[in-house]
Each structure stands twice: as C-alpha cells, then as structure tokens.
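Sequence in, structure out. First:
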Amino acid sequence: MMPQLIMHIDQLAMDNRRDVLFVRFAESFEGQKRMGSREYYKKSKIRQRLLEFLEENEIGSIECGPPSNSGYMSGYWGEIYIDVPFDESDSDYRKVQAFLENEDGSMKFDDARFYYFPYEYAKESIQQGLESLVAEFSGWEEKDEPHFEVFLGDEREERNMLMPWVRVYSVDQAIMFLETGEVAELHLDYDLGGDETGSGYDVLLWLKEKVKTSDYKLPEEITVYSKSLENKARMEATLEEIR
C-alpha cells in the first residue's frame, strides 16, 4: 500500500481561500483511553456514521491533519475536513450542523468536536512555518548543492519524489526561499487566483533583477505554466532572457 498524503487543515484553508471546517474525535483523555490511544479513531462509531452521512448527502470530505505550525509533531488522529463553507445560509452546512450539533450548539456526540478554522489564521500559520524553515536553511554551516523543490501555484504538477519540496502561496514566500540559495527546482504558475498573492511572472522579474545585479545562481530547473497560452509565452520569454 502506498503512503497516504494527509494535508494539514491550514493548507486546505489556503487552497480553498476561505474558512474551513473539520471534526475531531475522542479528544478527551477518557475518550482516548476508552478507545485505545492513537488508534481510537478506527474504532469510533460516530466517525463512521459521519463518513456515511457525508457520502449519502454527496458532501465532500477528506482526512486532514492539525495546523502545520501547531508546535508539535503528531501523527494522524482521525480528523476529517468537511468541504462546505462556514455559512449558515448554505444548505450543506446546515445539514452537517444538524447532524453534529443540538439546537443550542452543544455536540450531539461526546466523542466528536466540530471546528471552524479561519482563513486568516491559516495564512499566519503557513507564514510562520515557512519562516521557521527558511531560518533553519540559513543557519546551516555546511551546505551541499541546492536540494529543495519549491512550488508556487494553484495546482501541482508531478513532482520529484526523491527531493524535499515546499508549497508556497505568494510571491513573497517564493522569494523568501529563493534567497536561501537552497532551491534546486522551481515551479511557477502565472495564475495564483488573487492580486494579493501576485503571480509567477513577478518571481521571474525578481530573478531577472537579481541575476542582473549580483552573482546569484539560478535554480537548476525552472518550470513555468499557465492556463493562458499568452501568459505562459510571456513567462517563457522572460525565462529565456534570464538564462
């Protein structure tokens, strides 16, 4: 069986660009003790009932992890991300809320907790995690050849499975990693879905200026792409100028 990639809840908020919802199970010590430590979620009847309910109502869900910058290392404890907006006018949200909560807002099931994770918290969490990673790279006294793959974009292409990789969500975050000199492969999408994050083309303009004014070494491989043929051609032309 191939290992399963489980995304953190803040990464899911960033991908969806909105507040997100998830459910945890048997959070109390007694609940975990009763169900058997870390494997409790496999024995959780309410978790199975929830998954069946979501499938019956054609509501999307996937397994998820805690915030990526939660400050501790943790395995998977059975959390489920529910793909509906936190919006009481949304019919699917009301269905999920009615399944999990009583009218007074209390939970119907002792071993389940229904959480809302704000998009603004996700941005802060991701930024702090990336800054910590960059600080770790910058503090290395001895460095081999650049060995990290950085991806900036809405959708991932197939990546190098033998190389550590980092997903960034804005031009500033991409540049933050490029300045470490540790990026071997760089993937740039023109379309990032919002003015506040810039575009992959902006990163190329930064690289162009950096190469022009210093002895900066480009990543060994730079891949550009866009749903727009015009934008992709624009990026490819700039990349050729840089090289």
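Second:
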Amino acid sequence: MKENTAKKKIPVTKKVAKAEKVKKVAKAEKVKKVAKVAAPVPVVEEKAAPAVETATVEKTDQAPADAKLCPKCNGYYPGDTCPNCSAETDLPEPPKMKTVYGDIEGPHEAEAAAPATQEEALAFEEPLTGARLDTHNLPKEEPFEPLHLEFSRQVFIEAMKVAMDITEKKSIMPILSHVHLKSDAPNGEYTSCTLEATDLQITWVRRIHGKGDAVNRCIPGKLLMNEIKALPDGANVELTFSRHAVSVNGRCEILTPDAEEFPEIKVNAGVEQPDAVLIENLSDGLKQVFPAISTDETRYVLTAVLIDPEHGKVVGTDGFRMHLSDIKGPGPRLLVPRDAVRLLTKYGNSNTVWLLDERTACFAVAGGVIATRLMDGNFPDYAGVFPKNLKTTITFNSAEFLKLLEGALAVEERVVLSLDDGHLGLQSENGVGTYDWKLAAEVKNYVGPKKKFRLVFNGKFLVEALKSYPAMLTTLGAPDGYGACLINEKAIVMPIRE
C-alpha cells in the first residue's frame, strides 16, 4: 500500500483569517514608528554669560601701541587675554604649505607654490618647520688627517694571493670578503703591518714590512687585488686612508667598513713559536696523498688527511683508493680538512707545525701562517687494509704506460688490464669506438693462465697514482683473485667488479 504524499488543502476561511491577522500586526508596527518620530524634543535653556567688567574691545584696523590681535575675533585688546572670547590657547590650526619637500605644517597664512625649477628651489627662502632636517645643529666631525702605508708591490701581491684563496666570495657575512690591515708604528717610521684573511675555518696571517702610519682598516679583497695588479712593475703600493675610504696610488677610492666587524684573529705571524715542531717530508707527503682525499661530504671523515707522526705516515683515502707517504719527526695526530691541505700543497713548504689550541693547528707557509680548524672522527685503520703477500707483480715503463692511459681515457674512463705473451694489454670501449694497445712488461709469480688475467680499473685513479709516486719503472702488485692492488708500494687501488 502506497503512502499518500499529497498536501492537505487548507479551508478558504482559515486563509482569510490568517491574512487579516498579518495586516493588523503590520499596521500596529507602523503606528509605533510614527509615534516615535513625532515625540517632542526637550528644550535646554541657555544660561547667560557672566558680565565682563572690562570695556568692549573695538574692532578697528588701527591698533593701539600696546594692543594685541586676537586670532579668533580679529580684534585688538590689551593684556594677555582677549576679554570678548578668552582665546588665549584656542588658536586656529595653521595652514599646510606645499614646497619641494612635500606638505609642511607651519604658521603660514597662505599656501606657497612649489618651485618649478632647480634654480627656484635653491632660491627658496621660506622658513620651514618640522619637516626639514636642521643640519646646522648636528655635531660636527673632527678633522681627519689622512693615513699612509707603503709596501713593496711584489711582496704585497704574494701575501694577497693566499688571502684571495681564503676570502669568502659568497657569504652571509660580507666582512669575510675583506682583508684586515693592522699596523701600530708611529707616523713616518718603518712599520710591520699584519694582513689577515679568514673564512672562519681557515685563517691566513702574514707580516709585511713597509713604511707608514698606524692603521686598522678592512678593505674588500678582490677590489684591492685588482688595483694592485694594475700598477706598473717596479711601483710600490701606496695606500692613503681617509675617514671611510682608501685610495690605491691615487687611482681609485674603495670604501672601508669598520674594522671592529672583522673576526678576532689570535694567530701571531713573524713571532717565534716555542711549541712548533719540524716534521720531515710533510709538505711532499701532503702533495702525494691529496688526490686520494674524498670530496663526498656524506663521508665526512674521509674529506681530511691523517697526519700520524707516531707511525710516520700521512694518509688520504676516498674508500676506493688510498695514498700513503712516509714522514719523520715528533708531533700530534691531526685530521686536516681538504681545503687546508689544498692551500698547504699549493704554496710550498709546510713542514713546521704547532697547535694554537686543541682544535686549531698552524702551519708556517709562504712567509706567513695558515691556521685551520681540525676535524673530529675516527679515520679508517689504514694498516689493516694495506695488501700483503701479493705474489704477482707486473713491471712496466711509467712514461709509456701514461701515454697509453691518455689514449684509453679518451674513449672510456673504465680501462681493462690484461696479460698476453709478456705484454701488458690496455683496452677501453664505449658505444662509439674501442681502444686496444699493448706494452712490454715483466711478469713475476703469476700462476694462472695469462689469457684469463683481467683487471678493470678507473683509469683516472691509475694516472693520479703514477703521478703522485713518479718513477722510471712502475710495479703493480696484484692478488690471485679479486682484491686490492698495490702501485709502487704506496698507492692502493681497488679494481672494479664486472
């Protein structure tokens, strides 16, 4: 049975009664509104002002000698208060005036038009209040006597080269792109000026002898270096300092920020260090192991070089190869970051070392001092991975092998070493071409079939190992199966699994 959904019909009489009720309610509301509008407004009686005993002030164009003009009623009156309107403080709002400086509030009776030309603006002599800065009342700066420094151009460029390798080009601290010059000599006498540069991890300090005044300034490193290079050969570097700038041989002016913004440097250059130690062959050892240092920041500790005087070794590794070098001398165990090692190997002898504190090591380099923050971490056990008892040895000419490697690397980075009738074969291939060449070699203690000898290497690793340990003949030690190979008893290279 279906449900009846039809609407019930309402009788006509009920509809009429409902409509009449709505009309009555609307009429009642309208009556209320009209009554509210027509309500009488209460009348407030005004009280008469108290009579003023003084005489009425006359409004006339001619003022008495001791009278004042009332700004409200425009009449003249004696004394301090107008007797008619008592307008001692009720003054009208002063008009605004349009000038070249914008709308300016001031006690002007009329608006002045803004000057249309620069000459009119300069000749504008209307008094201004509140908007223009009164420069006449500012404290005057004391007169500044220019300061001078003079150095040998060649010596200054040598010091600046190291500084430019350290100064930050892009940094959240703009002051790190500057070099700090500080001298304390009396005027006119020879001085020893300290040049400092830092990126907060590595610091360079050098003493430069010259002539001049006591100076403490920071100068943008790149701009200063470019200006010094542009000087003619044989000319000295002449720096003239004004209050906020420096002039290089009178050719240009470079702004100099406040020296207090530069980080404090605790390294002393040109001073004998009682704790300094000499480590023999350290500089050469760093050059030999530098190519093997890792550039992968995820393996943090491998981006450093281990200096281990106790065991007489310098070690660098990236996990696929390892370079070692022998050193001799006392000293602490140090983990030196890759960037610092790059500077030490680039600028020459760095065999003298001392500790500034527990986490900072100093190296005497290029007439100055490079200080670097040391790294923390556990360096791999290099003695445990050093291959031993490698019976198979292959000896070949180093220069010829390097030439073959250059040809193979032009085709593919992966190269294959093989043996064939007393010759060392070198092959590489890619989708475009192949490379195959042989080199005379002396093979010892190889017990397997020569045609099955096959080792795949990263060709770049082989090139860097041969260049790090140069010799007329290169000896490659190989295991019977897969494993680390040893080049010239110093470089360990892992082959690539096929």
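Remark: Residues 147-261 form a domain with the DNA Polymerase III; Chain A, domain 2 fold (CATH 3.10.150.10).
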